[in-house]
Write a structure and sequence with these properties.
Oligomer: single chain
Distance between the termini: 42 Å
CATH class of the largest domain: Alpha Beta
Number of domains: 2
CATH architecture of the largest domain: 3-Layer(aba) Sandwich
Length: 342
């Protein structure tokens, strides 16, 4: 394992430390009293900077006292106004879509909170005297946003807690940190991860989740794309049962290309659990391979286990594919070509 790979591996280990660092540092950010009077929430960001919002909604969406909408684009929905709190998330601080959305939010006099490591968003926060969390990513030696999800997650959780939009405190954060450490220790030898990675080699993984694990599915798909350089898809039960099974008919060689990866849970609605069994029966009839994983414990435990397991899985697939999990040459080429474009 070279230094770059060690840094990637270390970032997985330090996920809990990222959450702990962010949650505790944001305690010292003063939030204007007017922020308590907002009636809706929006989170803007792209790629790895927005993945933590998926996780937050999966875990705490039903407990939030205000609706939280996500924006992965340059503009904002028409409902955003002075009664809206807009989180602008950009790991680098230079994501053009996030910067554009921030300018729209300011124009509409929305309340803003900036989360970034610095960059242009850091300057914008200073110029407009916006509350912000400009973090030092000491616990993400890989430097990759998708491996630094703990920073945005921890920061948003603290802001929502301070404003009393979510009842969450140190005990929840300590559990997230403890679960992160526990599952890294459980899987760091890569034995279980390697068995599954072998089944996914030269296949298109189709990741299936439900309810509180849907955010995890998006994170895992992203990590397989960027780290493993491998196409992956994700779908949710029950939604997929209304269309996907028919779509597997063609191309005729789908059974050779696809491998479904089910993340089932005893915490799911009982009807959804039955849907997993029936969906797998249909896949058997279609001769499409699948693997099911069932994690135990409460929802926080299962989400953190899937997050650690999935991160290590993307690393192991990168080794099988003989690629650098840190480098993203095609994304960087795209960004270079966008520079100066109108």
């Amino acid at each position: 394992m070279n230094q770059v790979e060690q840094n990637y591996f270390k970032s997985i280990e330090l996920l809990g430390a990222q959450i702990f660092q962010a949650f505790n540092e944001v305690r010292f950010v003063k939030l204007p009293s007017s922020y308590r009077r907002v009636t809706q929430l929006v989170a803007c960001g792209m790629g790895g900077s927005q993945l933590p919002v998926d996780l937050l909604l999966g875990l705490f969406g039903r407990e939030l006292k205000l609706s939280l909408s996500q924006v992965r684009d340059y503009s904002l929905p028409g409902f955003v106004d002075g009664r809206t709190l807009v989180f602008i998330n950009s790991y680098s601080g230079g994501t053009e879509e996030a910067l554009a959305a921030a300018r729209v939010a300011l124009k509409r006099k929305a309340k803003c909170f900036i989360i970034a490591s610095n960059g242009d968003l850091g300057k914008l926060a200073g110029d407009h005297h916006l509350p912000s969390y400009l973090f030092k990513p000491d616990n993400n030696p890989s430097g990759q946003p998708r491996m630094g999800t703990g920073y945005v997650l921890g920061a948003m959780l603290n802001v929502l807690s301070q404003l009393h939009f979510l009842e969450i405190g140190a005990s929840h954060i300590n559990k997230l940190v403890a679960y992160s450490r526990l599952y890294f220790q459980k899987y760091q030898d890569l034995k279980a991860v390697s068995r599954l990675a072998g089944k996914l080699s030269n296949k298109i993984p189709v990741i299936v989740t439900s309810e509180f694990l849907q955010g995890n599915a998006h994170i895992l798909t992203n990590q397989i794309h960027e780290s493993s350089k491998q196409l992956a898809l994700s779908f949710a039960i029950p939604e997929l049962n209304h269309h996907l099974l028919e779509g597997l008919t063609f191309p005729k060689d789908n059974f050779k290309k696809l491998h479904f990866l089910f993340f089932n849970s005893e915490k799911y609605n009982i009807r959804n659990q039955r849907r997993y069994r029936v969906t797998q029966q249909i896949l058997g009839r279609q001769q499409i391979g699948f693997t099911q994983l069932v994690f135990k414990g409460d929802q926080l435990s299962q989400a953190m286990e899937m997050l650690i397991f999935g991160s290590l899985l993307s690393y192991r697939l990168s080794k099988i594919n003989k690629v650098d999990p840190n480098k993203i040459p095609w994304v960087n080429l795209f960004k270079s070509k966008m520079l100066g474009s109108s």
